[in-house]
Amino acid sequence: MQTDSTELRLRNLMLASLDGDAAAYRTLLAELGTHLRPYFTRRLTPAFAAQAEDLVQETLLAIHTRRMTYDRTRPLTAWLHAVAHHKFVDHVRRQSIRLTVPLDDDAPFFAHDDNADALARRDLSVVLDTMPARTGDLIRRTRIDGVSVAEAAAAHGMSETAAKVSIHRGLRSLVARFGGGEK
């Protein structure tokens, strides 16, 4: 039977190559290549048929790097088929199309939750109102409204340095009250 003779010939080449016969190894790789090409060509769609040679090379490289895992008591073609099958599965996984949608593309479908922003602004206003009026207003102007410290200080008729100190102390006080007492 042809298959048994092919198995025997390839197995003998593999065993000789594992024992250090470089000529047997070159012959083995050449013959394996002739068996792998049709294997991959039959499994690939026409759009990917050109990649059969890449798969042959990847499989031959895998055989080269993993040849010491071959069990000498087992048929070589079964081991070869397993390696080729894994390379084919890897190829299919690499080629699979995964539909991805950037998060920005979801914006038209989901409304912005203005309610959460309004609640946060209200809570912040309540907290700042518990502070001395000038300190609360300085924090509100510089940290929320984006006004410069110099402009906020001028609105209160104080120096920039005094405004910075007031803002710093006010924020520290808020951290002490609402941040678990940390300073």
UniProtKB/TrEMBL annotation:
InterPro entries to which the protein is assigned, alphabetical: RNA_pol_sigma-70-like, RNA_pol_sigma-70_dom, RNA_pol_sigma70_r2, RNA_pol_sigma70_r4_t2, RNA_pol_sigma_r2, RNA_pol_sigma_r3/r4-like, WH-like_DNA-bd_sf
Gene Ontology biological-process entries: DNA-templated transcription initiation
One GO MF term attached to the UniProt entry: sigma factor activity
RNA polymerase sigma factor 70 region 4 type domain boundaries: 123-174
Keyword DNA-binding included in the entry's annotation: yes
Tree of life domain: Bacteria
Keyword DNA-binding part of the UniProt annotation: yes
Residues covered by the RNA polymerase sigma-70 region domain: 42-96
Keywords on record: DNA-binding, Sigma factor, Transcription, Transcription regulation
Protein family membership: Belongs to the sigma-70 factor family. ECF subfamily.
Protein name (database record): RNA polymerase sigma70
Natural source organism: Devosia limi DSM 17137
